[in-house]
Each structure stands twice: as structure tokens, then as C-alpha cells.
């Protein structure tokens, strides 16, 4: 049937504007949609007894006896990624970054505020249990990682040894302890105005864990070999002593933490920010005092933070950061998007501090304004959400085209509801190796991402690209809240 001419004209206008937006690359993503999904993801990573309001319904209770091997209750917390191990070090970093997202962007989280706090609390309830054995023990993990990785099993079916790992005064771990202190202190700020009692518990535990980190110094991977090569502490522990003390300073304003920070001599240069390396994050956190509070005492941290950004910005003379042809920051080949989300969080947060204090800085002769940092952060987030050469969203469940074969046991195996009987360790591998899309959508999960040429293979065995992780998602929560608040939903 022939359509009236006006229809043709409307269609032409629509098509023309579509081409124009695609060509100019200026279309904004639906940030509020992505924000809600990025938080929902954490439900899929939950360990322990699930509450009645659990929305990711293909998951059920798991690991209900965690801790029993050491006669303690260590149920709850998060599985780190596509496996069923609870690694305390990345779990604590995840909790710190989720908390920081709420602290900086709380007003912009809008209707997602309660869900974001719940996601923090799922982490801190566990971390409080992990810290419950102090001053003798800080529990740093549950589940033998090698045994776990040799199986492809749903968390609900897990039958590998749930070995309990801890650090102690004679087998120290200042890195994992410093990060745990950071997480508890940051979360204490999150809950201060909504649950004072809980906030006080978090803060007093944070102080205890920080004292433990300072008193018994050492690298946790020297004490607990089983965490290598999964979450070995490559950068050592000085960065976590700095980071933990910086969060305690923020939570308490107790100047003894500043004196401690100044005594550390933590002056290593940084061009990365991750679950392992916290120097840049600590400097941005401390530089807030120099910018927002105009306190000159903190100026050295501002200079160090700006040195970091000069190593990240593409046009800076001191840049040591590679970009893909499509414009994605490219740090390391395995799970690169974790660096992109963590660094984008620092870019948008520092942009916010700069804007509030009308501050600019220079990288050689490159003038850096708050817009320079904000635009780079937005470009990275837009790339992740689909404005990239492969035209794929690296967030599962966002837009029409997203990874369908993510490297994630629970997502790739049939749910307990659809397949109630046990699926054994080896039996599960047929699902890893199948070409079918995953039966369960892990909504909101951001995967490891593309290679250095913007290429992506939607393949479960490509774990460097197709595995999600809690520490990829936690920082993007803050970035998305920031963008949702600035650009609306469309
Ligand atoms: C908070 O703690 C105080 C003192 O321990 C107690 O009296 C009060 O009932 C607690 N409030 C809540 C909401 O739990
Ligand atoms: C953004 O996503 C939300 C949630 O899915 C939806 O309700 C809204 O209509 C979307 N906005 C636009 C402009 O597409």
C-alpha cells in the first residue's frame, strides 16, 4: 500500500537525523537505564542466603556453610567474577569503589540510591565477619581457587573444598587489610546519615583493621600463596596503607592519619588504578582537600594526582597510555575494561573537584580543564555502552547487541529452577564449550572487553574478554550516576 507523502517525509527526517547522530557520534546513551542495570548485576554475584526480594531470580542460595572449615561464619559476600571463589582483596576494593560512587554521586543516583546502598551492605556485612577474628586473624578468602577453577559448576551445586584463608600477625597482609579498612571506612560514610549504628560498627572495625595493617606489615600473597596467580599483590602494600589511611582520614578527620600518610613516603608514580594498585585513587581522594576545601596542606597530593592524569590523557606529552583505533583506553590485555572503568571514575571525580574550584592544570603545554577529563570519561563510558567499531554494548542486557556467551558459570549453566538436579564438576564443561548463548542473562555485567584493535569474540573461552567482575562494575556505577545526572536518560 502506498503511504501518504508526509509519511515519507517524516521517515526521511528521522533517517537523516539518525545518520547525522551516528556520523557525529554525539548520541547520548540511556545512562539511567545502564545505571540501574550496573547495580542489579551485583545480585547475580551474591553468595549465601538470598533475600525474598532478589530480582536476579535464576540464582539461589549457595555456600551456606562457608567459614565452617575454621569454625566461623563467613557466609555472604560476593563471588568475584565468573567463578565461585570469595576473594577478600578484590571484594574489598569493589566495596570501596561502590561506596565512593555513592559518596561522590549520591544526589545523582536518584531512585537507585537504595539499591546501591544494598549492594555496599552485601559486601560490608561479609567484611565485618571477615574482620571479626581480629586482632588474631583477618579472613581473606573462602574456596580453594584451583579446585574451583578445575570445575564448571553453578554456585548452588558447588562441592569443591571451601578452604578458609586468613592473614595474622605472623603471616601478615597489609595490602588486603589496608583495602578492607578502606572499604569499611568508606561504607561508614555511606551509612552515616541513614543507619548510624551500622556506620559506627563499620568505622570501629575499619580502625581495627587499619591498625592491624600498620602493625604487621607484609604482602598477603607471601602469606597466603593460594591467592596467586589470581589476585597476587603485585604492587606491594604501601599503596593500600596509603589508601586505607586516606579513607580513615576522610571518615574521621583525625589528623594522625595524615601524619601517618606523610610518614609513609608513598611516592611511586602511577599510570593505572585497579584492585591491585591504589596510588592514583588515594591521591585523587586526598587532592579533594586541596581543591574543594582549598587546604594547602594537601597540595602535594594534588600535584601527584595531576601527574597521573598527564600519564592517561591521549594528547599529553607524558602520556604512557595506549588507545585503540576506536578510542578505548587500553592498559592490559586481560580484562582491560576494569582499568577503563576505574580510571574513568577518577577522571569524572577529579573533573567534579576541578569544576567546583575553577581549577585547571597543565601537562607540558597541554591545558587540562574539567571538561577535558569529563569528555574523556564520557567517551570511555559511551564506548562501553556501544559507541564502538564493533557496535556492541559491553554491558550485558543493555541495548539490543551485547555479549551472549559470557565466561560465567551461573549464567552459562541452566538454572536450578529449569534443571533441579545436580550438575557435577566435569559434567558442567559441556556448557562452557557449547556455542549456544547463555541461558541466564547476568543483567548489567560489564565484561573484560575488546582487544587492542577493538575486536571482540563472543566466546566463553575468551575469558580475558568475556568474563565479568565485580571490580569492573563498581566504578562504572559512579560514572553512570554522574552522566545520568548530567545528560538525562536519553
Ligand atoms: C542504636 O544503638 C543504640 C545504642 O546501642 C540503641 O539504643 C538503639 O536502639 C540502636 N538503634 C537502632 C535503630 O538499632
Ligand atoms: C531509558 O531506559 C528506561 C528504562 O529501561 C526507559 O524507561 C526509558 O524510556 C529509556 N529512555 C529513552 C529515552 O529511551
List the helices and strands and how they pair.
Layout: H1 5-24, H2 31-44, E1 86-87, H3 88-109, H4 113-131, E2 138-142, H5 145-149, E3 164-167, H6 174-191, H7 196-215, H8 220-223, H9 238-252, H10 255-264, H11 279-291, H12 299-312, E4 322-323, E5 329-330, H13 337-357, E6 361-363, E7 366-368, H14 370-385, H15 409-412, H16 429-432, H17 463-466, H18 470-487
Antiparallel strand pairs: 1-2, 2-3, 4-5, 6-7
Globally, the shape reads: globular
Structural class: mainly alpha
The percent range for helix content is 40-55%
Quaternary structure of the protein: single chain
Query: Which sheet architecture does the biggest sheet show?
Result: 3 strands, antiparallel
Overall pLDDT metric: 94
Beta percentage is under 5%
Count up the domains. 1
Number of strands: 7
Number of DSSP helices?
18
Instruction: Just give the CATH class.
Output: Mainly Alpha
Q: Report Rg.
A: 22 Å
CATH architecture: Alpha/alpha barrel
What small ligands are held by the chains? 2-acetamido-2-deoxy-beta-D-glucopyranose
End-to-end Cα distance, whole Å, is: 34 Å
Low-confidence stretches at least 5 residues in length (pLDDT < 50)?
A: 1-7, 9-14, 16-21
N to C succession of SSEs: HHEHHEHEHHHHHHHEEHEEHHHHH
Family: Belongs to the glycosyl hydrolase 9 (cellulase E) family.
Active site: 407, 458, 467
Protein name: Endoglucanase
Pfam family, one: Glyco_hydro_9
Describe this structure in words.
The protein is mostly helical and 490 residues long. It has 18 helices and 7 strands. Strands 1-2-3 form a 3-stranded antiparallel beta sheet. β6 and β7 (366-368) form a beta hairpin. It is globular and about 65 Å long. The two termini are 34 Å apart. Residues 30, 32-33, 489-490 line the site of one 2-acetamido-2-deoxy-beta-D-glucopyranose.
Amino acid at each position: 500500500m502506498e503511504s501518504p507523502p508526509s509519511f515519507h517525509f517524516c521517515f526521511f527526517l528521522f533517517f537523516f537525523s539518525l545518520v547525522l547522530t551516528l556520523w557525529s557520534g554525539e548520541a547520548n546513551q540511556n545512562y539511567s537505564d545502564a545505571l540501574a542495570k550496573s547495580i542489579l548485576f551485583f545480585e547475580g554475584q551474591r553468595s549465601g542466603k538470598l533475600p525474598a526480594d532478589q530480582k536476579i531470580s535464576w540464582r539461589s542460595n549457595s555456600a551456606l556453610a562457608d567459614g565452617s572449615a575454621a569454625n566461623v561464619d563467613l557466609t555472604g559476600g560476593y563471588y568475584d567474577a565468573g567463578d565461585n571463589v570469595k576473594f577478600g582483596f578484590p571484594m574489598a576494593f569493589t566495596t570501596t569503589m561502590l561506596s565512593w560512587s555513592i559518596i561522590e554521586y549520591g544526589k545523582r543516583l536518584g531512585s537507585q540510591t537504595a539499591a546501591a546502598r544494598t549492594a555496599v551492605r552485601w559486601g560490608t556485612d561479609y567484611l565485618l565477619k571477615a574482620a571479626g577474628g581480629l586482632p588474631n586473624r583477618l579472613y581473606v578468602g573462602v574456596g580453594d581457587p584451583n579446585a574451583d577453577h578445575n570445575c564448571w559448576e553453578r554456585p548452588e551445586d558447588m562441592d569443591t573444598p571451601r578452604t578458609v584463608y586468613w592473614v595474622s600477625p605472623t603471616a601478615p597482609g597489609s595490602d588486603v587489610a589496608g583495602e578492607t579498612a578502606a572499604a569499611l571506612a568508606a561504607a561508614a560514610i555511606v551509612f552515616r546519615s541513614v543507619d548510624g549504628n551500622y556506620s559506627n560498627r563499620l568505622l570501629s572495625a575499619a580502625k581495627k583493621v587499619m591498625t592491624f595493617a600498620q602493625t604487621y606489615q607484609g604482602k598477603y600473597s607471601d602469606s597466603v600463596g593460594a591467592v596467586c596467580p589470581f589476585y597476587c599483590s603485585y604492587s606491594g602494600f604501601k599503596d593500600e596503607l596509603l589508601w586505607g589511611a586516606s579513607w580513615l582520614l576522610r571518615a574521621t578527620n583525625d589528623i594522625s592519619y595524615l601524619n601517618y600518610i606523610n610518614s609513609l613516603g608513598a611516592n611511586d608514580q602511577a599510570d593505572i588504578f585497579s584492585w591491585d594498585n591504589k596510588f592514583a585513587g588515594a591521591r585523587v581522594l586526598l587532592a579533594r582537600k586541596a581543591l574543594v576545601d582549598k587546604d594547602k596542606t594537601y597540595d602535594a597530593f594534588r600535584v601527584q594526582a595531576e601527574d597521573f592524569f598527564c600519564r592517561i590523557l591521549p594528547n599529553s606529552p607524558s602520556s604512557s597510555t595506549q588507545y585503540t583505533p576506536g578510542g578505548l583506553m587500553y592498559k592490559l590485555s586481560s580484562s582491560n575494561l576494569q582499568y577503563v572503568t576505574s580510571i574513568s571514575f577518577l577522571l569524572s571525580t577529579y573533573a567534579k573537584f576541578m569544576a567546583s574550584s575553577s581549577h585547571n592544570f597543565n601537562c607540558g603545554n597541554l591545558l587540562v580543564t574539567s571538561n577535558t577529563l569529563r569528555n574523556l570519561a564520557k567517551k570511555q563510558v559511551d564506548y562501553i555502552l556501544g559507541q564502538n567499531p564493533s557496535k556492541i554494548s559491553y554491558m550485558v542486557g543493555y541495548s539490543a547487541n551485547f555479549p551472549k556467551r559470557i565466561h560465567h558459570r551461573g549464567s552459562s549453566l541452566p538454572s536450578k529452577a529449569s534443571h533441579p538436579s545436580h550438575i557435577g564438576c566435569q559434567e558442567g564443561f559441556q556448557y562452557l564449550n557449547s556455542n549456544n548463548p547463555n541461558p541466564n542473562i547476568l543483567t548489567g555485567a560489564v565484561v573484560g572487553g575488546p582487544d587492542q584493535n577493538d575486536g571482540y569474540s563472543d566466546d566463553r573461552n575468551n575469558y580475558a574478554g568475556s568474563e565479568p567482575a565485580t571490580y569492573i562494575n563498581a566504578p562504572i556505577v559512579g560514572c553512570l550516576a554522574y552522566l545520568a545526572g548530567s545528560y538525562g536518560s536519553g
